[in-house]
Amino acid sequence: MQQDALSIRDVIKNSLIESGIFQNTLTIDSVIGIIIALLAAMLLGFYISIIYKVTYRGVIYSQTFAMSLIGMSVLTCMVTLAISTNVVLSLGMVGALSIVRFRTAVKEPFDLMFMFWSITTGIAAGAKMFLLVCIGAAVVTIFVFIMSAKVVNSKVYIAVIRFDGTATEDEIYRIMSKERYTVKSRTSRKESTELALEVRLTKNKTLFADKIKNLENVSELTLVQYNGEYYG
């Protein structure tokens, strides 16, 4: 049994050595392949950043996040190129990357999708699967433009209203009956009541805000675009 185990180990060892995966010598073809893969990853990362900028519908656009998409694609391509040519280096890099922890919080789920798109693009470019990268980029681009078009056609706002009296609240609900809204929060105080409504508008029609503002017992009305988070 021990002799059979040794023979199997020798066979695996000899097959790895004969395959040449432990050799670090570079040829002209390999250097050209590395350059092409890195350039493709950089160009595709730049394309992803442009799509992110064009389709961004948040409140504050982050230029640094868009630039990081390019760097993320190139760096992931470098990692893929490194681990695909050396088994020992790949095992060490897997162990090193397993202890890395990123503390930066991503507030927009849509931004998270762009991050994964950039990472997978770098991996595919490093594996020289350029056809897969191009087809995937086309599919994701179509999906992103369809979703961003829906966001443009229908925007969500938060209307924060401060008023006095229950009769005023009934009048507010009567005015809002023609709009698509949901009650996010209702805070009652001794002096006044604060009502937060999530309103979905199609063409930025804010006439309801003027009607509510003109009510006698309404002291304040704030209308802000809703980006997914509200703190009352």
Which SSEs are present, and which pair or pack?
Blueprint: H1 2-19, H2 28-55, H3 63-83, H4 87-97, H5 109-126, H6 130-153, E1 155-163, H7 166-176, E2 180-188, E3 193-201, H8 207-213, E4 218-225
Antiparallel strand pairs: 1-3, 1-4, 2-3
Helix pairs in contact: 2-3, 2-5, 2-6, 3-5, 5-6
Spell out the key features of this protein:
2 domains, 232 residues
What does this structure look like?
The protein is an alpha+beta fold. It has two domains: 2-152, no CATH class; 154-225, Alpha-Beta Plaits (2-Layer Sandwich). It has helices at 2-19, 28-55, 63-83, 87-97, 109-126, 130-153, 166-176, 207-213; strands at residues 155-163, 180-188, 193-201, 218-225. Strands 2-3-1-4 form a four-stranded antiparallel sheet. Strand 2 (180-188) and strand 3 form a beta hairpin. Helix 2 packs antiparallel against helix 3 (63-83), helix 3 runs parallel beside helix 5 (109-126) and helix 5 (109-126) runs antiparallel to helix 6. The chain is elongated, with a radius of gyration of 28 Å.
Brief account:
The protein has 232 residues and is α+β, with helices and mostly antiparallel strands. It contains 8 helices and 4 strands.
